Amino acid sequence: MNILVTGGCGFIGSNFIHYLFETRDDVNIINLDKLTYAGNRKNLTDIEKKHAGERYIFVHGDINDPELVAGILNVHEIDRVVNFAAESHVDRSINDPSPFITTNINGTQTLLEAARQRGVARFLQVSTDEVYGSLGPDGRFSETTPLAPNSPYSASKASADLLARAYFKTYGIPIIITRCSNNYGPYQFPEKLIPLLFSNASSDQAIPVYGDGLNVRDWIYVRDHCKGVAMALENGIPGQVYNFGGNAEMANIDIVKTILGQLGKPESLIHFVADRPGHDKRYAMDFSLATKELGWTPDHDFATGIKETIEWYSKNKKWLKEVQSGEYRTFMRNWYQDRK
Ligand code: NAD
Ligand code: DAU
User: Which ligand is nearest to the CA of 185?
Assistant: First the structure.
């Protein structure tokens, strides 16, 4: 099976490539990645050493390049596409929505069009629970919950989902959409809450908590998400949307206190800062359809997943330092300057 994975040098994409090589013998992977600030080829050093040129090929490029994408699909006889490539950080989308429109919407359309021309067997669009908007204190998102995105990021992801749906309805392209809750685990870029928390706490820097810290996310260990994407790619029904969640709803402040406790750091590091504009209050996922149709459930509870995650970051402080480039430091400084 020849699979084009886009955005494979990012957090979830690199975990997915690791997961596939660990669990499947019949896959060849082409990884197309633009290597933005969030993409890091070193996330796959072991895969390159073991499989490069044979079962694994890296292509440095943009999903928005139609000739490149069509060339990859034809030359490598791609029969499956998994689109992870995206601008993924909500705060950055508030600062500047443009790259989110370019990559998440136009880039997805470029891929869909190339997949249509090639006639692929499956196209899996990796999406997010954020397309559903925000929940009150009760209930969970199901696949039929109306889309109501609140940030430029989630609006761009919802737009891509609708384009994918349209390519299924209009052209019959076998599209599957997966929507997942908040991932955590190895290789997550330290602008996101959990790795930022680890990074700041390790060096005794303040932990910024937005608003009252009572916003709730449903946390899923990244490997469980990868397992779901692999199962949906193999056995998902074309045209179907599948929700994935971790059964681990937690308020941000509780996450922060838990991790500080595990690191033996004081709660005095917590700094409440101005809220994120349009901040969704609560996410929770009903993933019973994925359980019923794919046989998927998450394997990790939060306690197990966060222990493994903290161990990984503790052993990989060099990785953490290397990804904190000048661009990263400038973004973080300016963003948190405005939130004081
Ligand atoms: P990430 O920011 O860590 O990685 C994104 C990757 O895409 C990077 O390697 C980057 O270089 C690449 N990329 C960006 N623009 C590109 C372009 N134009 N062409 C080619 N490559 C490009 O993101 P992530 O957290 O790994 O998220 C991956 C996908 O999963 C995204 O589509 C995101 O919306 C979705 N998702 C993420 C989460 C989460 O909790 N992180 C949850 C649900 C869904
Ligand atoms: O729900 C899935 C989504 O999860 C994905 O689609 C996104 O790509 C991914 O970035 C993530 O979005 P969030 O905005 O939920 O993740 P983030 O880690 O940025 O924030 C998690 C929560 O923590 C959110 O309520 C905002 C809050 N937060 C975040 C940061 C970075 C803080 O309180 N302080 C912070 O410094």
Answer: 1
Share of residues in the chain with pLDDT > 90 (%): 96
What residue ranges do the domains of the chain occupy? 2-185+220-247+280-301
* Residue 221 Cβ < 6 Å to ligand 2: no
182 lines ligand 2 (CB under 6 A): yes
> What kind of architecture, by CATH, is found in domain 2-185+220-247+280-301?
3-Layer(aba) Sandwich (3.40)
Q: Per-residue pLDDT for 11 more than 90?
A: yes
Expressed in angstroms and rounded, the spacing between residue 136 Cα and the centre of ligand 1 is 27
Instruction: Categorize the per-residue pLDDT at 192 as very low, low, confident or very high, splitting at 50, 70 and 90.
Output: very high
Residue 335 CB less than 6 A away from ligand 1 = no
pTM of the model: 0.98
Residue 29 pairs in a beta bridge with: 3, 56
